[in-house]
TrEMBL record:
It comes from Formosa algae. Keywords: Isomerase, NAD. This is UDP-glucuronate 4-epimerase. Pfam families: Epimerase (PF01370). Its EC number is 5.1.3.6. Residues 6-268 form the NAD-dependent epimerase/dehydratase domain. The keyword Ribonucleoprotein does not apply. The keyword Electron transport does not apply.
């Protein structure tokens, strides 16, 4: 296998951390980029980077791209905002980059109601800057994170990539839909491959503290009530992190149909789970009942997600393997160890 140098944005984030680790394990070189913002606990982000061999004092350095220093043998980390349209091109100019995996974004549906400008900066301007760098520095393939949120409140399940997604119900979802349109335009105009991955509710060890898995586990262990929206009448296609990473890596480094430059794939477990059943699995893993605060539907939230992954399965032999019981148990074990 030919060794590649791959830029992974959002490398201190949940999925970016795992993708970087897997690429390193496969023998590739990784340039990790992240702005380490304070949307959630930065200590968790620094701890992920430490697992990749990047210590906190190294990660906090705002590096000069012309004299960038590599940490470790094949992992390099750069602290930077994607929306910095002056510095990002310098990174591409001063490094030989073969592939780009853009996992950096302002995440979270509910936070987009509070701070919409953060989504415009990172998800729109930042993504445009990535596209411009791919265009100007001859990057042949860009894999980027989209989201199941683009499907809105569609009742046409399982969600298929061919479905109409013109009705997002959160700004976060709208920015992800915009990313797909922008990628299509750049593939059409400039002839490089763009692969969008619509992630479905990713969970697992080292996960984000704003996600249900983390929130529920933390609350139950600490005898606090959990917020159960829509009185629990929700279902999600919960997808374990290992299954997500296998799909990301396949689309990033395996040969693909080069005649079609613009591609979109659902990447999920394709086994929706009712929210109350998910909570029950967490209760069993912790061996403790949850205190449930039953609440109405949240603005911007969707009632169900369910991925049709046949397209990714056909083209990349994608096979999600982790059921919710095993995935929840793995997360709870990690949580107890990480927080003593």
């Amino acid at each position: 296998m030919e060794t590649k140098t791959i830029l992974v944005t959002g490398a201190a984030g949940f999925i970016g951390f795992y993708v970087s680790k897997q690429l390193l394990d496969l023998g590739h070189n990784v340039i990790g980029l992240d702005n380490i913002n304070d949307y959630y606990d930065v200590n968790l982000k620094y701890a992920r980077l430490a697992e990749l061999g990047i210590q906190r004092d190294q990660a906090e350095i705002e590096l000069n791209m012309s004299s960038s220093t590599a940490f470790g043998d094949r992992m390099q980390f750069i602290k930077m905002n994607l929306e910095d349209r002056d510095t990002l091109p310098n990174l591409f100019a001063s490094h030989t980059i073969d592939l780009v995996c853009n996992l950096a974004a302002q995440a979270g549906v509910r936070y987009s109601l509070e701070n919409p400008n953060a989504y415009a900066d990172s998800n729109l301007i930042g993504f445009l800057n990535i596209l411009e760098c791919c265009r100007n520095y001859n990057i042949n393939r860009l894999v980027y994170a989209s989201s199941s949120s683009v499907y809105g409140n569609s009742d046409d399940v399982p969600f298929s990539e061919s479905a109409n997604v013109d009705h997002p119900i959160s700004l976060y979802a709208a920015t992800k839909k915009a990313n797909e349109l922008m990628a299509h335009t750049y593939s059409h105009l400039y002839g490089f491959e763009t692969i969008g991955l619509r992630f479905f509710t990713v969970y697992g060890p080292w996960g984000r503290p704003d996600m249900a898995m983390f929130l529920f586990t933390d609350a139950i262990i600490n005898d606090k009530p959990i917020k159960v929206f829509n009185n629990g009448d929700l279902s999600r296609d919960f997808t374990y992190i290992d299954d997500i990473v296998s799909g990301v890596i396949s689309t990033l480094i395996e040969p693909s149909d080069s005649s079609q430059l613009y591609k979109l794939y659902n990447i999920g477990n394709s086994q929706p789970v009712k929210l109350l059943d998910y909570i029950e699995a967490i209760e069993k893993a912790i061996d403790k009942p949850a205190i449930k605060d039953m609440l109405p539907m949240q603005p911007g939230d969707v009632k169900q997600t369910y991925a049709n992954v046949s397209k990714l399965k056909t083209q990349y032999d994608y096979q999600p393997k982790t059921d919710v019981k095993a995935g929840v148990s793995a997360f709870v074990t990690w949580y107890k160890k990480y927080y003593n």
